[in-house]
């Protein structure tokens, strides 16, 4: 597969995931949607890991699987619930803060991590963007506020899980990590569905069924594989651009395919979040390049 095709595939899958999450809960309920998706993803991930000869069930890997599994469970549970409260595009915008949240947590938990002034400025701009979205007050009803808060909490859980996994430093194959994490989280989703719903849907709309299958097969397995394929062949700067493009694409898709409004306040907040993320990811690189150019001109 060509790298550009894989790169575009990652953007499309990540951009369509929030909308598919929302659709998967229309009819059967969000708990059934997430439990079914994770069950499908677990079977496929374990199957692929077996075909590739990866040893998933190793004692030294259990701690990593536990951290990843709990991260998947917490982040996805709040995300799926939030998808029933707010437009799907908003989910991608708030989740765009993940690199900033991860960077901030790395300062506390990973030795040798620093936070430059540009990165701090980017983080503050991103948080200000979230404040603009929340600051609508009267314009946002209680459901919207709770939904945005749930996605922000999901982002934090995801970031904590990522940093904790890095601290463990297991050196496992990425597919083994996902397969093991899904094997831990899926029983939790099934138990949660059984406790709070437990009713098998009598009528499963085609759109909901298609979304569950899409998320289980494309979102959980193929999307993950494409991402690591790209990560191994493209420099980190270009990979980081995915987090800038995806929220914009998700907002447009939600508007076109689901009739979601593009509120000016949401657009302004999204612009600030993306600007902060861009400064956080690329500010130091651009400044370093500019200094080198100035130094080269001085030598000449």
UniProtKB/TrEMBL annotation:
Which residue spans traverse the membrane?
A: 30-49, 61-83, 89-110, 122-140, 146-165, 177-196, 208-231, 238-258, 264-282
Q: Name one GO cellular component term.
A: membrane
This protein's source sits in the domain of life called Bacteria
Q: Mind telling me which Gene3D superfamilies this protein's record contains?
A: 1.10.3730.20
- Name the family the entry cites: Belongs to the EamA transporter family.
Source species taxonomy? Bacteria, Pseudomonadati, Pseudomonadota, Gammaproteobacteria, Chromatiales
Give the primary localization class: membrane
- Looking at the record, the residues that make up the EamA domain are 8-134, 146-280
Source species: Thioalkalivibrio sulfidiphilus (strain HL-EbGR7)
What InterPro entries does the database record attribute to this sequence?
AA-Vitamin_Transporters, EamA_dom, EmrE-like
- Which keywords belong to this entry? Membrane, Transmembrane, Transmembrane helix
- Record-given protein name: EamA domain-containing protein
Signal sequence annotation? none
Q: What is the protein's membrane topology class?
A: Multi-pass membrane protein
Q: Where in the cell is it found?
A: Membrane
């Amino acid at each position: 597969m060509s790298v550009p095709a894989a790169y575009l595939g990652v953007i499309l899958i990540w951009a369509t995931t929030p909308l598919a999450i929302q659709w998967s809960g229309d009819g059967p309920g969000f708990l059934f949607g997430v439990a079914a998706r994770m069950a499908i993803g677990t079977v496929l991930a374990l199957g692929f890991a077996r075909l590739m000869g990866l040893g998933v069930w190793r004692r030294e890997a259990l701690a990593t699987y536990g951290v990843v599994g709990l991260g998947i469970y917490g982040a996805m549970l709040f995300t799926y619930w939030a998808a029933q409260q707010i437009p799907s595009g908003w989910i991608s915008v708030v989740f765009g803060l993940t690199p900033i949240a991860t960077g901030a947590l790395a300062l506390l938990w990973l030795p040798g991590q620093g936070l430059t002034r540009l990165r701090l400025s980017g983080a503050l701009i991103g948080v200000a963007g979230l404040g603009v979205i929340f600051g609508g007050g009267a314009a946002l009803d209680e459901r919207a506020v709770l939904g945005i808060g749930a996605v922000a909490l999901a982002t934090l859980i995801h970031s904590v899980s990522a940093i904790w996994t890095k601290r463990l430093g297991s050196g496992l194959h990425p597919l083994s990590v996902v397969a093991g994490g899904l094997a831990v989280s899926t029983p939790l989703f099934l138990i949660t569905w059984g406790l709070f719903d437990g009713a098998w849907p009598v009528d499963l709309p085609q759109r909901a069924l298609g979304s569950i299958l899409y998320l289980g097969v494309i979102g959980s397995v193929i999307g993950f594989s494409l991402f690591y394929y790209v990560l191994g062949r493209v420099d980190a700067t270009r990979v980081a651009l995915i987090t800038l493009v995806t929220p914009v694409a998700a907002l447009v898709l939600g508007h076109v395919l689901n009739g979601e409004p593009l509120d000016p306040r949401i657009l302004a907040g999204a612009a600030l979040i993306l600007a902060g993320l861009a400064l956080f990811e690329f500010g130091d690189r651009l400044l370093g390049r500019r200094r080198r150019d100035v130094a080269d001109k001085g030598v000449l």
